[in-house]
Amino acid sequence: MAQGINATGMEQVAEEAPVSKRTLYAHFRTKNELVIAHLQGFARSGATLEGVLAREDVPARERLRRLFDQPARDAAPVRGCPFIDAAAEFPDPESAVHSYAREQKLRMVDLIAALPAELGCREPLALAEQLATLADGAAGRAMVLDDPDYGRHARAAADILLDHALPGDGRV
């Protein structure tokens, strides 16, 4: 769905799917169901920022800094955040797709907050919101500018936030 969710019809999906149209519709009665299943699969894949945050072999501060890395350039053009993309294409906050995207964004803040808390931050949730805002903004600008390294700007701002919010050097 590189052309966008709303620009991709179920007929086009059925033509590209490795299953019959009948099977596709048996599993996904509506496009909303298909979009949510796609987003759920993406979330489970480890290719999201959640995968970055879960890396226990990487120090906590470095995991926070990696929020600003875009996926490898092999997937041109840069697509940004799939959850923001989905919410933008389904702007009704009550729609199932928008609601799922919102849940993922709220969950991401909780996951981010656990790392500054581990590093001794007194206000980990506030810092997590700031870092999530920077990450979302960087993903959006990276997509619009087709610049996979755009996160370097947000990472520099995040370093300042981390230096101010974490005790000592914050490199626990």
UniProtKB/TrEMBL annotation:
Domain HTH tetR-type: 1-46
Protein name per the record: AcrR family transcriptional regulator
Keyword set, alphabetical order: DNA-binding
Keyword Ligase in record: no
PANTHER family the record matches: HTH-TYPE TRANSCRIPTIONAL REGULATOR RUTR, HTH-TYPE TRANSCRIPTIONAL REPRESSOR BDCR
Signal peptide coordinates: none
Pfam families on file: TetR_N (PF00440)
UniProt DNA-binding residue ranges: 9-28
UniProt organism field: Streptomyces griseoviridis
InterPro entries (UniProt xref): Homeodomain-like_sf (IPR009057), HTH-type_TetR-like_transc_reg (IPR050109), HTH_TetR (IPR001647), Tet_transcr_reg_TetR-rel_C_sf (IPR036271)
